[in-house]
Write a structure and sequence with these properties.
By secondary structure, the chain is an all-alpha fold. The protein contains ten helices and no strands.
């Protein structure tokens, strides 16, 4: 386990050359112990390592073996994570159809498990839709604020103000008031 953790830490720091032997040694140890979950973890990390180093064919091989072990052991969360990794790899290789299929499979599993973090990770990897998705998530907060701001601005507009219109027709004012034009009128408007 220590070799795995050290290899993972070095990989995260970008020390790929020193991470690979530690992860490979950890993989052999887990194979010897007969622990398919830990073996799949190592294979996944080795796949990530190869992906980071620009070796997609090797990354695919590690991911496929890890996916087989995840499916064999019934580890749905691990399977969804690997499908997400496959999708990212496919995007980097320019294979958008495979990426879409892998992301859809990952999404189905994550929805089945109720894994919101997995769903968020998968949606974050949909490169073409990141900005649209983020904007659509913020719209429920943005639109009411913008509309409210425009309504208040219109109510105190010097030319088209409903406040001026009412006050004029009730006989309280004879000329239009620029409610937001001076400090005293603006303070009265806010109050």
């Amino acid at each position: 386990r220590l070799q795995y953790e050290l290899g993972y830490a070095q990989m995260e720091r970008g020390e790929f050359e020193s991470a690979a032997p530690l992860l490979e040694a950890s993989l052999e140890a887990w194979r010897t112990l007969g622990d398919p979950k830990r073996e799949a973890d190592c294979l996944n990390r080795l796949g990530n390592l190869c992906h980071y180093q620009g070796r997609p064919a090797e990354a695919r091989g590690y991911y496929e073996e890890a996916l087989f072990l995840r499916q064999l052991s019934g580890d749905l969360a691990g399977e969804a994570s690997l499908l997400n990794n496959f999708g990212v790899l496919a995007i980097h290789q320019g294979n958008l159809e495979e990426a879409r299929a892998r992301f859809e499979d990952s999404l189905l599993i994550d929805r089945q498990l109720g894994n919101t973090a997995g769903i968020a990770l998968m949606l974050n990897n949909l490169l073409g839709f990141k900005r649209i998705l983020r904007a659509s998530m913020l719209l429920p907060w943005i639109v009411p604020t913008v509309l409210s701001t425009l309504a208040w601005k219109w109510m105190f507009d010097p030319t088209f103000s409903i406040v001026n219109w009412i006050l004029y027709h009730l006989g309280f004012i004879r000329i239009r008031v620029d409610w937001l034009g001076g400090p005293v009128a603006a303070m009265l408007s806010v109050i």
